[in-house]
């Protein structure tokens, strides 16, 4: 007995000391005294088809507790008679398909069936003392029929076809479980294995691991060459306080950049990773990196929140814009049709809003450049992003009045307007000129640009290098000539690009060719007073816009004065081509009405006077001949008598004195 | 012009016929508008310039629509201005939509109504798809008829509708002046069964219209000529015929169709402007100014702030106009 236990313990020890699967196998197979099959004769009984081993009595006494039948070309388990005290039974390297005929060996402690063709675990129900069961390299598909093996210490099922871990929860003395090279896709159902210290799951297809934190003694866990790709799928490992040695090599997770420090950070209890000791340095690095990751995550979360908020706001602005446009359309249609159809309340259905692409300006990458000046209110959105100022919704135009830091304002080279009426934008262009002097690229989308004339308003800016008019919401782009008109009217800017395409010399020539005469007519054929009044008008308007702004400073107005004078000198040619927003135009016409009325009455009075005078003149013309004749007749009659006439005249003279 | 009959009219009517008052009122109104600027160089000068520009036809540039359509002379001037400014667009061969032509009109008259342009487009497109492209000359001739005779055309439309629906406005007045025209068929109700209306009947109504109303109508003889070839016509067919009729055209603003793209004076000016396009190394023209440094201001416009006693170059000329415009005004 002692020898048996000794050999068993040696046997068992060796298996513990050699954790790698191959060595277990080797340990299993090479421990113990070599029993070659030469001493054993296999006699086939006539009674049954099973062979019966027979050995000499000396051997029986020498090796009474172990029997080795390896490489015997066995296809079935032989019936073993008279050896009921056997403790170690070795059937390695045979062709056995079923475990049978060993139910009588109730003292069996170790059963080795490595490298056979067993398809099902069975026939073990009487082996209540079994401590080591080696079933590696067989064809077992399912773990089952282990219910009575409560003393099992080592269970080796490597190299089989097992797909699921089951029916082992009662093995509370199991210390080593080898399920390498099977077909496991996940790990769970491990509760109850209270003694398990080593779990070998190499070379499976495991994607996630659960229940490992229910193994209080687990120290070594081998997950090499599986399919684990994120730490979340093995998150239970972090909760296992006993784990000290783990391998992940050959998994997708090991290729990730964050692999090492994430594992180290989450499993502070680890001593060895992928068969290498973990140094203090590594741990420190890991925690530093993990903190960085955390921060990054927080930052990106924040940014995605902001993004979402922005998107919602833009959606809201878009909806409002759509509403506005529909109302305006209905109004103009009703004006035109002059219909007396009942005015039904417009059921503006928000859900019918046509989808528009999400407006996401280029977000700054990196954690260092946080978004500046992000101001989000429900009805409009102002966003500054590096060199781009984006305005959504007409409320955003007020933001131009804010106190922008010189640095921020100086960096802005692109200004983008979306969901704002162009007429409203025109009014703030002077402000734009002053506050953002470096803005060279203007973008317009959904701004209701419908007339070529509206481009005239852009001439008042200092400079434009690029112009982008998005076809969406800007019908003017449908015109054939719009680009040429822009080039013509804004020729003093020497624009580089329109809607992304370079402006070529030919374009400029074509623009001049098409509209050059218009400029000529507009400048040289207008009477002088018209020229003055139109130019004066434009300047007055700009003053008005400026004065209405909040941050007015006298210095600015002077600068404006010089500016516009310079502007006038630059291109008198086209300066008369102005754009007045419709509202202002109507206002002006209203103002003129009074004057017109006055003029009408004044002219009428003049005409009346003139006609009266004319009438009188005519009347006089008619009467004059007669009157003249009368005068002459009177005179002749008077002088008929020379003497008395002389006396009369002298008399008159003396009387006068 | 200086016929004795003009003296037979009472004063007010005479003035009204010549639209003198319209211009006087407008002149005074303009004076009031800009009195600060004009007072700089004198009222007499202002009136001179104003009426000069009326004669030349440049007074309607960038004016409000109510003024542009106020008198026939204004309308003619506007049409001419439009032709001269945008002839190059036509020469380029672009076909544009009605909306784009409207835009071009708005460049010269900011509140030009869309309806007129639409009506003109309808003439060209024969009331078909309104988004079709039109050539410059087609549009221009149709627009001329529509704009100049807009009131007349409205009445004609009403008459046409009446005829279509079988009513004959002739039953109201019966001027049986020329017996040769009594060829109308007794079946008055059958006037509208086929497409359009009968030409002769239509013409009769038009003649009455011209006699009755004071606003400008095309000369009846020419209208008769236009209608002479057809038996029946539709409203837009009639308008199309009008717009293509050479005689009517000559009475108005525009040159003949063949000459529409031809304006040598302006072309010369254009070449000069093109030469000034910055960066243009190989100038297209042989004009001597091509070698000048590009300066954007055309030479003839003096500084607007120069007071009166500095006579401008332009004043020396006959009526303050440039040489080119003189030529083209013939």
UniProtKB/TrEMBL annotation, chain A:
Residues 1-30, 332-359 are annotated as: Disordered. Residues 15-28 have a biased composition (Polar residues). GO terms for cellular component: centriolar satellite; microtubule. The keyword Nucleus does not apply. Keywords: Coiled coil, Cytoplasm, Cytoskeleton, Leucine-rich repeat, Microtubule, Repeat. It is found in: Cytoplasm, Cytoskeleton, Microtubule organizing center, Centrosome, Centriolar satellite. Residues 278-311 form a coiled coil. Gene3D superfamilies: Ribonuclease Inhibitor (3.80.10.10). InterPro entries: Cilia_flagella_integrity, Leu-rich_rpt, Leu-rich_rpt_4, Leu-rich_rpt_typical-subtyp, LRR_dom_sf. Its main location: cytoplasm. PANTHER family: LEUCINE-RICH REPEAT-CONTAINING PROTEIN 49 (PTHR45973:SF8), PROTEIN PHOSPHATASE 1 REGULATORY SUBUNIT SDS22-RELATED (PTHR45973). Part of the neuronal tubulin polyglutamylase complex which contains TPGS1, TPGS2, TTLL1, LRRC49 and NICN1. Interacts with PCM1; TTLL1, TPGS1, TPGS2 and LRRC49. Subunit of the tubulin polyglutamylase complex (TPGC). The complex mediates cilia and flagella polyglutamylation which is essential for their biogenesis and motility. This is Leucine-rich repeat-containing protein 49.
């Amino acid at each position: 007995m002692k020898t048996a236990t000794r050999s068993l313990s040696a046997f068992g020890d060796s298996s513990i000391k050699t954790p790698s699967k191959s060595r277990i196998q080797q340990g299993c197979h090479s421990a113990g005294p070599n029993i070659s099959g030469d001493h054993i004769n296999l006699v086939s009984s006539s009674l049954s088809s099973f062979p019966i081993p027979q050995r000499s009595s000396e051997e029986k006494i020498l090796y009474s507790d172990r029997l080795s039948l390896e490489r015997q070309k066995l296809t079935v388990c032989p019936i073993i008679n008279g050896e009921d005290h056997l403790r170690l039974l070795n059937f390695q390297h045979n062709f056995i398909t079923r475990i049978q005929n060993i139910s009588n060996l109730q003292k069996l402690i170790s059963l080795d069936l490595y490298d056979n063709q067993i398809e099902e675990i069975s026939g073990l129900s009487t082996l209540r003392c079994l401590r080591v069961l080696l079933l590696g390299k067989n064809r077992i598909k399912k773990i089952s029929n282990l219910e009575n093996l409560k003393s099992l210490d080592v269970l080796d099922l490597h190299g089989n076809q097992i797909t699921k871990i089951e029916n082992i929860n009662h093995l509370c003395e199991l210390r080593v479980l080898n399920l390498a090279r099977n077909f496991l896709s996940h790990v769970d159902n491990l509760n109850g294995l209270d003694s398990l210290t080593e779990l070998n799951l190499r070379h499976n297809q495991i994607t996630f691991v659960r229940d490992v934190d229910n193994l209080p003694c687990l120290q070594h866990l081998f997950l090499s060459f599986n399919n684990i790709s994120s730490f979340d799928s093995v998150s239970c490992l972090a909760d296992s306080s006993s784990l000290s040695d783990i391998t992940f090599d050959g998994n997708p997770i090991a290729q990730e950049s964050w692999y090492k420090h994430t594992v180290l950070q989450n499993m502070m209890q680890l001593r060895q990773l992928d068969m290498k000791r973990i140094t203090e340095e590594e741990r420190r690095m890991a925690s530093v990196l993990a903190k960085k990751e955390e921060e990054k995550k927080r930052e990106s979360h924040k940014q995605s929140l902001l993004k979402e908020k922005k998107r919602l706001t833009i959606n809201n602005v878009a909806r409002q814009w759509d509403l506005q446009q529909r109302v305006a359309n209905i109004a103009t249609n009703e004006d035109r049709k002059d219909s007396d159809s009942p005015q039904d309340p417009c059921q503006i259905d928000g859900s019918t809003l046509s989808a528009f692409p999400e407006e996401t300006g280029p977000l700054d990458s990196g954690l260092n450049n946080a978004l500046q000046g992000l101001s989000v209110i429900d009805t409009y959105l102002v966003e500054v992003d590096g060199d781009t100022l984006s305005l959504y919704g007409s409320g955003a135009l007020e933001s131009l009045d804010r106190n922008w830091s010189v640095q921020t304002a100086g960096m802005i080279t692109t200004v983008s307007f979306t969901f704002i009426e162009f007429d409203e934008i025109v009014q703030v262009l002077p402000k734009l000129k002053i506050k953002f002097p470096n803005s060279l690229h203007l973008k317009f989308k959904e701004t209701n640009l419908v007339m070529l004339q509206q481009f005239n308003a852009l001439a008042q800016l200092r400079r434009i290098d690029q112009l982008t008019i998005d076809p969406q919401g800007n019908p003017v782009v449908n015109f054939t000539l719009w680009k040429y008109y822009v080039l013509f009217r804004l020729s003093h800017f020497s624009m580089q690009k329109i809607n992304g395409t370079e402006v070529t010399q030919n374009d400029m020539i074509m623009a001049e060719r098409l509209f050059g005469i218009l400029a000529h007519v507009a400048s040289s054929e207008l009477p002088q007073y018209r020229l003055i009044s139109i130019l004066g008008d434009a300047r007055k308007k700009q003053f008005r816009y400026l004065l209405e702004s909040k941050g007015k400073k006298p210095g600015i107005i002077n600068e404006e004065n010089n500016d516009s004078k310079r502007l006038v000198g630059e291109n008198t040619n086209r300066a008369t081509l102005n754009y007045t927003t419709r509202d202002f135009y109507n206002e002006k016409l209203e103002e003129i009405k009074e004057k017109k009325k006055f003029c009408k009455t004044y002219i009428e009075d003049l005409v009346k006077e003139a006609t009266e005078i004319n009438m009188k003149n005519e009347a006089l013309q008619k009467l004059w001949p007669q009157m003249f004749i009368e005068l002459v007749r009177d005179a002749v009659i008077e002088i008929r008598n020379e003497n008395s006439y002389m006396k009369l005249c002298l008399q008159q003279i003396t009387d006068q004195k | 012009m200086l016929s004795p009959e003009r003296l037979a009219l009472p004063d007010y009517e005479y003035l009204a016929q010549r639209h003198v008052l319209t211009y006087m009122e407008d002149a005074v109104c303009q004076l009031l508008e800009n009195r600060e600027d004009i007072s700089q160089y004198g009222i007499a000068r202002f009136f001179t310039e104003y009426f000069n520009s009326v004669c030349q036809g440049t007074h309607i540039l960038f004016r409000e629509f109510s003024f542009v359509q106020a008198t026939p002379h204004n309308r003619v001037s506007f049409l001419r201005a439009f032709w001269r400014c945008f002839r190059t667009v036509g020469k380029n061969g672009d076909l544009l939509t009605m909306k784009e032509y409207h835009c071009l009109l708005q460049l010269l008259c900011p509140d030009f109504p869309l309806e007129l342009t639409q009506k003109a487009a309808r003439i060209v497109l024969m009331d078909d798809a309104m988004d079709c492209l039109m050539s410059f000359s087609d549009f221009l001739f149709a627009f001329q008829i529509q704009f100049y005779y807009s009131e007349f055309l409205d009445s004609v439309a009403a008459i046409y509708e009446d005829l279509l629906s079988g009513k004959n406005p002739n039953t109201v007045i019966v001027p049986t002046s020329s017996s040769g025209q009594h060829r109308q068929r007794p079946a008055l109700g059958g006037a509208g069964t086929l497409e359009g209306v009968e030409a002769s009947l239509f013409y009769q109504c038009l003649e009455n219209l011209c006699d009755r109303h004071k606003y400008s109508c095309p000369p009846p003889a020419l209208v008769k000529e236009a209608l002479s070839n057809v038996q029946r016509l539709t409203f837009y067919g009639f308008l199309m015929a009008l717009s293509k009729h050479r005689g009517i055209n000559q009475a108005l603003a525009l040159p003949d169709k063949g000459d529409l793209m031809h304006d040598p004076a302006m072309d010369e000016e254009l070449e000069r402007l093109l030469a000034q396009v910055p960066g243009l190394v190989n100038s297209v023209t042989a004009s001597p100014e091509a070698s000048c440094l590009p300066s954007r201001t055309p030479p003839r416009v003096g500084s607007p702030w120069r007071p009166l006693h500095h006579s401008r170059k332009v004043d020396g000329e006959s009526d303050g106009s440039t040489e080119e415009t003189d030529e083209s005004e013939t």
